[in-house]
Design brief:
209 residues; alpha+beta; 12-stranded mixed sheet
C-alpha cells in the first residue's frame, strides 16, 4: 500500500481542518471558499503512479469518504481490494489479499506537523508555503510546500474544478509522483458514521504499531 497516498490524503483532511488562509491571490481564495463550505465529501477516484520517465506505472480505482474533523475512508476497488480508514486518532490499513490489518496512531504515522494540522492546533500557513499554480484546462491548482525539512514529501497540489475538488498530485523525497483524479464529487453529503468504524475481518492478522 502506498504510504505517500494516505499521507497526502490525511494532509488533505488537515487542509479541511486548518484555517484561516491569509494569502490573497484568486486560487487561494477559491480554496478558502471550498474549505469553509465543505464539512464532508464523497467521490470516486482514479490514482496513477508515475515512473521516473513520467509514464503511468500503476493505476488504481476506488471511492472515498471524508468528514471533518479527522475521519475518512479510502476504498481501493481495482485492481486490488484495500481499505484505509481513519477515526479517533488512529488509521487502519486492510489488505484483503493478504488478509492483514495494520493499525497506526496518526502522530506515529505522520510526524508532528501533519498531526498538529489534523488536530487543528496550528494554521495551514504556519507549516506550508501556499502558492497558486494557474490553470490546466478548467482545473485551478494550488501548491502546498512544507516549510519543515523533516517531512517525507516535497509538495502536494490540490486541483479545484468549478470550486470543487478535482485532483491531487503528490511528490515525495524519493522522486515518486502520484496523481489522483476525482469524479462524482458530492459536497456535504449525509454520511453514516459506520463508514468510519473499522471492524477487523474474522481471521485477519492484526499488527498494531
Amino acid at each position: 500500500m502506498n504510504r505517500q497516498i494516505w499521507l497526502g490524503f490525511i494532509l488533505l483532511i488537515s487542509v479541511f481542518g486548518s484555517w484561516p488562509l491569509q494569502a490573497n491571490d484568486e486560487p487561494v481564495r477559491q480554496l478558502r471558499a471550498f474549505l469553509t463550505s465543505s464539512r464532508s465529501l464523497s467521490a470516486d477516484f482514479k490514482q496513477v503512479l508515475l515512473n521516473e520517465q513520467g509514464l503511468p506505472a500503476k493505476t488504481s480505482y476506488g471511492v472515498f469518504y471524508l468528514q471533518r474533523p479527522g475521519k475518512f475512508r479510502w476504498d481501493y476497488q481495482k485492481p486490488f481490494s484495500q481499505q484505509i480508514v481513519a477515526d479517533k486518532g488512529k488509521v487502519w490499513f486492510y489488505d484483503k489479499d493478504l488478509d492483514q490489518v495494520t493499525v497506526k496512531k496518526l502522530d506515529q504515522s505522520l510526524g508532528s506537523t501533519p498531526a498538529l494540522l489534523l488536530s487543528g492546533e496550528v494554521s495551514l500557513e504556519d507549516n506550508f508555503i501556499i502558492e497558486g499554480q494557474g490553470k490546466d484546462g478548467d482545473m485551478q491548482w494550488i501548491k502546498l510546500s512544507p516549510k519543515s525539512e523533516e517531512t517525507t514529501f516535497k509538495y502536494i497540489l490540490i486541483g479545484l474544478t468549478k470550486g470543487s475538488l478535482g485532483g491531487m498530485e503528490l511528490s515525495d523525497n524519493f522522486g515518486q509522483l502520484t496523481r489522483i483524479y476525482f469524479s462524482n464529487v458530492l459536497i456535504n453529503p449525509p454520511l453514516k458514521q459506520t463508514l468510519f468504524q473499522f471492524e477487523v475481518p474474522k481471521g485477519a492478522d492484526v499488527f498494531e504499531e
